[in-house]
Amino acid sequence: MSFQPYRSPSTGCPVRAVLFDTFGTVVDWRTGVAREVAAFATAQGVALDAYAFADRWRALYQPAMEAIRSGQRSFTKLDTLHRENLDEALRHHGIKPERVSRQTLAELNKSWHRLPPWPDSVAGLATIRRHYIVGPLSNGNTSLLLDMARNAGLPWDVIIGSDMTRTYKPLPQAYLRTAEFLDLHPGEVMLAAAHNNDLHAAREVGLATAFVARPTEHGPGQVKDLAPEGDWDLAASSVTELADLLGA
Amino acid sequence: MSFQPYRSPSTGCPVRAVLFDTFGTVVDWRTGVAREVAAFATAQGVALDAYAFADRWRALYQPAMEAIRSGQRSFTKLDTLHRENLDEALRHHGIKPERVSRQTLAELNKSWHRLPPWPDSVAGLATIRRHYIVGPLSNGNTSLLLDMARNAGLPWDVIIGSDMTRTYKPLPQAYLRTAEFLDLHPGEVMLAAAHNNDLHAAREVGLATAFVARPTEHGPGQVKDLAPEGDWDLAASSVTELADLLGA
């Protein structure tokens, strides 16, 4: 008997590809970045709160993309935005970026390429992949997502970076151009994400949706995205549970 | 001791990514297409030489892309060109495409998505992947290359289709935009191909080069590309031999 793919109630379509938000949903950016920031601080002989530094660096992410979404700035890849934001985060913590070698800063910026997966991510993706196309649907650029996959062992079938769609989520084209590269109807593509706003934007343009809870993405005191805030097609507490729900 | 990547004599760079021409180099398009054409002919109750049909269909490939390379026609993905060429190949063999259902023709067109790998491809790629980024560098579009990878079990790290570079080999931008998506210097990228003209174009824009002999790509009477016709960095008779030469 051949496999029957999950049919999305919201789109009425069988799901062919399950694409994942990555930062927060598949990998633990806060722990990964804090670890490398702590090593950097030790090497530089400075004292700082590595988690606070990671939170600050990450907080500059949305404003930087917003300049591009709004058309104020032409498309610029995420590695470049992270590098600019790193200077600002360093200054916020009392470190002059001019006094650190360019190579050291370039290395630290690559901490986003080396983020650790959540414990269930690799096994869950491998299971889902048996019956569905799997890939990231992220604001990361291709080389970042590729390094992340090789470092974390993420078994993607395909990587469509934001430098390929040349736009940033949650703009509609980020989702639609991704479906187009896959030659799939938007309703045949499911976005799995730990962020309700990402799922909301994906549903608006006709994708199937799955919430994956990551209640400690922002640390022990996280207050948002603790639960699904829409009637998403599926809701799971891990990628392995999502695999079960998809019948994979 | 950490792995020392192969250093290309022609570029002076260590190779980080080994990218493969696919049709002919990684997969056996002639056998794969002929097999599906033969099944189509049986189902339609017509007699035809399936290998001659495959050769004819493939012969229309370069002229179709040439209209795009020359700027006569805007970028059109390979699936669409194959579909147009199928009509012409059918007519050449005395079959009116109008008399065949659209769905049957769409299915037959997908034979390019289901090509069998050469016997050494999967094992060779898996070995090279341990130490190098591996991916296709093909005129195929992303969804075609993705289906091909899933069907043939090709363990790519990343797929950069021609619909992402929006140009066709052997134009320089096909190679250079691919290196750019990988955030690599062209000299850190090696093209592995069974076609001397592809390698020539890649070397012109600064890529490292490897010839992989496929002396039966065009059938038993093949007369070209039997041997390397340039001083390519490496020359191998299989992808597994290429893995050895790369020290992988």
UniProtKB/TrEMBL annotation, chains A, B:
Transmembrane parts of this sequence: none
Coiled coil region boundaries: none
Keywords, alphabetical: Hydrolase
Superkingdom of this protein's organism: Bacteria
Gene3D superfamilies, per database record: HAD superfamily/HAD-like
GO molecular function: hydrolase activity, acting on acid halide bonds, in C-halide compounds
Alphabetized InterPro entries for the sequence: 2-HAD (IPR006328), HAD-like_sf (IPR036412), HAD-SF_hydro_IA (IPR006439), HAD_sf (IPR023214), S-2-haloacid_dehalogenase (IPR051540)
Matches recorded under SUPFAM superfamilies: HAD-like (SSF56784)
Name of the protein: Haloacid dehalogenase type II
Lineage summary: Bacteria, Bacillati, Actinomycetota, Actinomycetes, Micrococcales
